[in-house]
Amino acid sequence: MSTATTPAAPVISSVSCTTGGTRPVFSLAWLIQQGYTGPFTIIVTTAGGAAVTGTASGMTPNGGIWTAGEDMNAQTTMYYVQVAVQSDPTIISDRVPLLFAPVTNITTAYDGITLSVGWTAAASAMPAGQTQIRLTTGGGSQVASVTSGTVAQFVVAPNLRTAGGSWTVKVTPVFDISSGPVSDPAPVYYARPDVTAVAVIIPLETVNTTITVSGAGLPDSGDVWFIANLMQDGRAVATTAPIAGTRTGTRTWQFAAGFGIAADLAHDYAVTAALSSATAGTATGPEGSAMGLVLLPPMIDVVTTASGTDRTVTVTVLPPAGDWRISGSAISVLAPDGQPVTGGQASGTGLTRSVTLAGLTIGNAYTVIAAACRGSSTGPYTTTRLPVLTSAPALTAATLDGGVVTAGWNTVTDAGVTGYRLDLVSGTGVMASGTFSGGSGSLPVPQLPAGDQGAPPSLVVTAIGSGTAGSTTGPASAAFALISEALAVTGIAFPAAGGDVTVTLSAAGQGEDGYALELWKNGTLSQSLTSGITAVTVPASALTDPASYAVRGRATRSGASVKGPWSAFTPLGNIAPAGLAIAYDGATASLSWRAVDGASAYLVTGIPGSNGVLTTAPELSVAIAYASDQNPTLSVQAITGVTTGPATSAPVFAAGLYPTFAQDTAAAIIPATAPAMTAYQITIG
């Protein structure tokens, strides 16, 4: 109860709508005048002066609450409020307009510095003179006002930009001292989702990607939505609708984003992401860091190696032309049904990836796909699967001769084999290489070092294949050591007594376990002979015809599946010395014969107590002690080159009596042989 004697109307200082709608509630504050403290009453009228029923409550000398008792229509009617002296309603304050229609459709967009807020103006006949926006963060609040329009933009105070917690915006219409209902809080997203990985699924036509984001301020539970931007040379050219993310780790989310536009390879592309409301355009946060895209699949080179039954698949990625940003690669080995093989996936920095796989079914139709990477950005995988060849062919034969090596091998049945690569390998690397479609092939052999015994080159054969995505190579065969050393015919020996001829060859010293010899007659192959040692026997029956004979030999191994080079042809000197004559005086035999063309020496054998005597002249005198029970047969063989030719033989003397005039011996008549000599008549005079 006022103690002042003269009633005075208060001055309204503020009016705020605490509840909007058709039955609004208003809270009023006023200033008393002339010390008069009431009691007061609150009066609400239309612009035309029609009273609106309502109830006042919470009345104090300085304020009160008024609740509408009948429906009010803000869209069609303007309303005012006044405060009057209860005992004399004619003593009344100035009227103040009432705002009770809310602002709707609030949108927010925050870029990390500037906050943009949009809204739909209140559906009210009483216009608002300004709009107040209140940003509330975990670190405090900030208020901004605009006098016109339905969009506000302001810089968030630096001390609030790092604030965590929940960020919201509330928008209130204001007319001078009268404020309308405060809107429901609208979310403001402030966390930056950095793109930590991206994989391009469909490269050029629509640029479909799978994006992984993470960030310190991101939610760690609940429904979280994102938008993604496709950047072309740093400029956004496409933005997705909101996409629900799937949590894959602590504050880490993943989602698929398709941009629906074709890429132009003349430009560089990247993606960014931002938090978003589920409804497009309602709320978006700042973009996180971008990640560049790889838009083309690579060409690849696949090499499979074997260790027992394990297979190591090594894939080298050849980056798309012109894209120097490629820094890594990813591969996946697929089973025949197209599903990934356990342990067959790898990715990382570098353009070569390897996986070692156990338990494969050798020969099955395995394949591999690969992608080029740009940091954690993975490009599209190759659309064509390249075969993984798991079978190794086996070399079965190899012949080196005349500067050419010819080999044979068992083929494999792996799907995707288009041929075989045959490599000639030495200690310094691959000397020669060629590709062949079947199970045999020949390679030219570079000049081999002379006398390189013990270090022969080897052959290796590998199954190969190719496709639109690149090339593939299977496991190499076991190395097949060659015999590269040509032999030499080191000796040809005709027995003095006649019979088979022995041809001696040098050893290659390259693991051979056999030797082959060819006998040629008048330039035509007559016989092929083999031996386990360097001495090869030529049957005497093969040399009965008068002809020009020659031999050549080679080293062999493994049942002659490995054959070395042929030696040079060596003539078979088969001419025996003619005209052998022997004169014997009881102590010395004097031999003479006609010289053989080309002979460098002659071997005389059959001398008692001697293994033979060499002479370079076609004659020889040799001491032979007389023994009545012996009649030695002496043989002469011409030595031509390495050949000790066939022998001409004759006894020292025929049966009969011979005079002897040996020195220091009395002249005598001696029998040639005894005791079975035949009597001969001697005629004297």
Plain-language structure description:
With 685 residues, this protein is mainly β. The protein folds into seven domains: 11-97, Immunoglobulin-like (Sandwich); 104-187, Sandwich (Immunoglobulin-like), CATH 2.60.40; 194-292, Sandwich (Immunoglobulin-like), CATH 2.60.40; 299-388, Immunoglobulin-like; 394-481, Immunoglobulin-like (Sandwich); 489-571, Sandwich (Immunoglobulin-like); 581-671, Immunoglobulins (Immunoglobulin-like). Helices cover 1% and strands 51% of the residues. The chain contains one helix and 60 strands. Mean pLDDT is 90; it is low at 673-682.
Instruction: Report helical residue fraction.
Output: under 10%
Radius of gyration: 57 Å
Distance between the termini: 206 Å
- Give the count of structural domains: 7
- The CATH topology of the largest domain is Immunoglobulin-like
- Structural class by sheet pairing and helices: mainly beta
The CATH architecture of the largest domain: Sandwich
Sheet with the most strands, sense and barrel status? 9 strands, mixed
Low-confidence stretches: 673-682
The average pLDDT value, as a whole number, equals: 90
Count of alpha/pi helices: 1
> What is the CATH class name of the largest domain?
Mainly Beta
The proportion of residues in beta strands is over 45%
Instruction: Note the overall shape.
Output: rod-shaped
How many DSSP E strands? 60
